[in-house]
Amino acid sequence: MKVLVIGDSCKDIFIYGDIDRISPEAPVPILKPTNSTENGGMAKNVEANLKVMGCEVDLITNLNDIVKKRYVDDKSNQMVLRVDENDSCERVDSYLLIKLYEYDAIVISDYCKGFLHEEDIEFVCNTYKNAFVDTKKMLGGWIKNALFIKINHREHQKNFERIPNYPELEDKIIVTRGRDGCIFRNKIFPVKEVPVKDVSGAGDTFLAGLVSEYIKSGNIAKSIKFAQECTTKVVQKHGVATI
């Protein structure tokens, strides 16, 4: 299975520590760092999950380091602060988006940091018939030729009034809803309840599972169920994790 991932990526850093008191200067917790983890996030997390699922993966992404740094209380696993650095990037070179026919699937992981514009995603979806899109952008006719579109519940709510204006999208949209499963073509796909430690990056794992299974089976219902199984595993881990 050969897959191309296109999208914004970042460096995910988790700093864990002990919180035993509140600062006397302001009503904020004092965290004493004890350990930290660091890994690729966003499009790089999709790439990492696809690789451990057995795919050969190429990546087109930004060169600058977007950093998401999270501070977490080790005892409660409660995030107390997130600091984003260099939270934007230059637009993709359009030359990189041509002649991509050797891939079984093209995965667009668009976090709206500036790497992909609507026109870039539209070009990929119009040119190649195997594009899976996960985007934070407001939906429209520009995405109508995607094979499938994955958005989360919050993004679906933002687009709720727009989607009926683009009926060609309705059969392509997969809405993930966390512990409430997901919806595709008005069908609810439930998910088993598990103890959740961290949901960071879970959407990336869902997307990777969806793509890898669909390449093998061509069955979208089976692919959704497999993606959910993958997601229930990673949310039981700390930080942004692979399956």
CATH architecture descriptor text: 3-Layer(aba) Sandwich
The top-level CATH class is: Alpha Beta
Tally the helices: 5
Mean pLDDT across all residues, rounded?
95
* Helix proportion: 10-25%
Could you state the order of secondary-structure elements as H and E? Answer: EEEHEEEEHEEHEEEHH
Major sheet: 8 strands, mixed
Strand order of the largest sheet: 4-1-7-8-9-10-11-12
Distance between the termini: 17 Å
Shape: globular
Measured on Cα atoms, how large is the radius of gyration? 18 Å
CATH topology group: UDP-N-acetylmuramoyl-L-alanine:D-glutamate ligase
Strand tally, please? Answer: 12
Question: Secondary-structure blueprint of this entry?
Answer:
Blueprint: E1 2-7, E2 9-22, E3 29-42, H1 43-52, E4 56-60, E5 67-73, E6 79-85, E7 105-110, H2 118-127, E8 131-135, E9 148-152, H3 153-158, E10 173-176, E11 182-184, E12 187-189, H4 202-217, H5 220-234
Parallel strand pairs: 1-4, 1-7, 2-5, 7-8, 8-9, 9-10
Antiparallel strand pairs: 2-3, 5-6, 10-11, 11-12
Helix pairs in contact: 1-4, 4-5
